[in-house]
Every structure is written in structure tokens, then in C-alpha cells.
Amino acid sequence: MTGARHRDRLPQLEDWLLITDGGLETTLIFHEGIDLPLFAAFVLLADDEGTATLRRYYERYLAIARRHALGILLESATWRASPGWAARLGYAEAELAELNRKAIRLLADLRDEHADVEPAVISGCVGPEGDGYAPASTLTPEQAERYHTPQIEAFADAEADLVTAITMTYAEEAIGIARAAHAAGLPVAISFTLETDGRLPSGETLAAAIARVDGETGSAPAYYMINCAHPSHFAHVVAEQAPWLERVRGLRANASRLSHAELDEAEELDEGDPDELAAEYRNLARTLRRLAVLGGCCGTDHRHVEAIAAAWTRR
User: Which residues contact 88 (CB under 8 A, 6 or more apart)?
Assistant: First the structure.
């Protein structure tokens, strides 16, 4: 039995509001000046210096949660720590499994050291098998389940409370991840990314993607999220109350209004305006009434999450 504390009862499904972090990779690259090959932050776990960098990163968000008397969802630095990406970086299977477990152990240590911040929920982050903006090819649900199972099993062996699949671009991969998490005995959250028209990169609507994943997994995901899109890209999608919006409990928006294609070409970080982003989060609460996990994605950092936490608690 692992030391997972919330695996059987996730606080974000009850009355708790949790903050989470901002754009880990963009913060490390543009603010810390760290080279992340293939956008892979998990490589920092390979040595003490890199691990200390990640520790300092998370401690900023623990301090925000403490100041605003909120819980926190600690998301592991493993968005790229899946077999295909790791192989391109030269990591063997056993080494990768250990780094995934180490990512969770780091979060468990931080949770224990900052016991006054509660609840502190530990999430094992799973990223897409392909490009997070425009995958060159797609997996079937069966292929996706096989591909993501090793990483998810490593999380299950450690102290992860759940799996969060971040920046999902099409339903089939999300279905496979949900099945793999269920088989490993872990709750799972699915976070879709959206284009400027509010649709997934696959062209699916968010409502259709959620309905499809729920329909083909027996509603296995504990909840859904939206990430790597600016609120202006999808505000019209969630403008009117609909039953499927009850399934959306998390938001990690981009600071920038740029499209994914424009972000790919950008040489400088577009940080947007933290207060403006916080106000847009607050406005989304009118229809996304079940939001319980609030953080950021590309271009955001602790300043944005601080503003979001302040605006939300004032609300």
C-alpha cells in the first residue's frame, strides 16, 4: 500500500478549491534560463541540482495556497515522461519508471514538509504521445492504453492520488488513458486543449469529446479540464449552461491570446496580464460552476496564479 492520501476521495470533487501551478516548462525556459530538450522538465530529476530547482518552483505555489487558505494540487513534472519522448532523449525503460516515481516522491516530500497547506493532492501528469498542439498522427484507444500504461503504473506504485492527462488533442488518446488509469486503480482527470475557435485540434467540440470519452469508458474520468488555451478562445463554448459543463472542474489557461501556431513561432514569452487573466477566470465561473482546480499553462507563472487565487476568493 502506498502513502497516497486522497486516491479514494478527491477533495476537488467535494467542497475544496485547489490551486495548481502555472506553465512549468515556459517558466523554467524563459525565467530560469534552463534548456529543456523536447520541452521535457522531467530530465531535471536526474540530479540534485535539477531536483532542487523543481522544489523551489513548487514552493512558490505552496506559499500562494497558504496565503489564501486554499488547498493545492501538486502536478508532477512528467508531461514528457512517457516512453516515446523518453526514448528520443536516451532514457531506458527502467530509468524512466524510476524518474516518474521520483517525481511523485518529490511532491510527497513537499506535501509532508508543508503540512499546514491542506488538502495537498498529488497528481501524476501524463502528456500526449504526439505534439501537444497538432499531432502528426493519432492513436487508437487500445494503442493509447498500451502506450501510457507504464507511466501510469509508475504513478500507482508511488504516492499519486490521481492521474491528470494534460493537453489532450483528440478523444481516442483520452479514452486509452482513462482505461489505463482505471486498470491501475487511479482516478483520472482529462484536460483537453482548444484552438482559437474553441474546438479541439482534432476538430471535435469539447462537448462531443467529453461525451465520447464518458460513453466509451463508463464515465471513468473523475472530471475534465481545459488547458493551453486563452479564455477568449473558449468563452463562447461555455457561455450558456449545459449539463456537460458540470463535468468541467479544472482550468489551466494560457496567458497569451495567440494561437497554438503563433505560440510555436514565438521567440519571446507572451506573459499577458495576470490581473486581466484573473478577471476572465472569474467571469467563467458564471457557467463553469463546478471549477475546483485553478492554475495556468503557457506563459503563466506564480504571479498569474496569485492573481487568480485572489480574484476567486474575493468572488
Answer: 38
Q: How far is residue 130's CA from residue 223's CA, in Å, rounded to a whole number?
A: 23
| Cell numbers that stand for 288 in this block | 463553469
| pLDDT on residue 1 | 39
Q: CA 190 → CA 173, 225, 226, 242, 290, distances in Å?
A: 10, 6, 8, 19, 15
Pairwise CA distance, residues 182 & 163, whole Å: 10
One-letter identity of residue 293: V
Q: What percent of the chain has pLDDT over 90?
A: 90
CA 167, chain centre distance (Å): 7
- How far is the CA of 52 from the CAs of 21, 59, 134, 161, 296, in angstroms? 17, 11, 33, 23, 22
Handedness of CA 159, 101, 86, 142 (dihedral sign): negative
Please say whether the beta carbons of 278 and 310 come within 8 A: yes
pLDDT in tens, 76-135: 999 999 999 999 999 999 999 999 999 999 999 999 999 999 999 999 999 999 987 777
- Inter-residue contact 296 to 21 (CB < 8 Å): yes
Q: How confident is the model at residue 2 (pLDDT cuts 50, 70, 90)?
A: low
Place of cell 512549468: 24
Indicate the helix (H) or strand (E) that contains 296. strand 293-296
DSSP state, 29?
I
* Torsion of the alpha carbons at 167, 69, 312 and 292, rounded to the nearest 10: 40
**DSSP code of residue 255:** S
pTM of this prediction? Answer: 0.96
Domains, the chain, ranges and CATH? Answer: 11-314 (3.20.20.330)
Per-residue pLDDT of 138-182, as tens digits, reads: 999 999 999 999 999 999 999 999 999 999 999 999 999 999 999
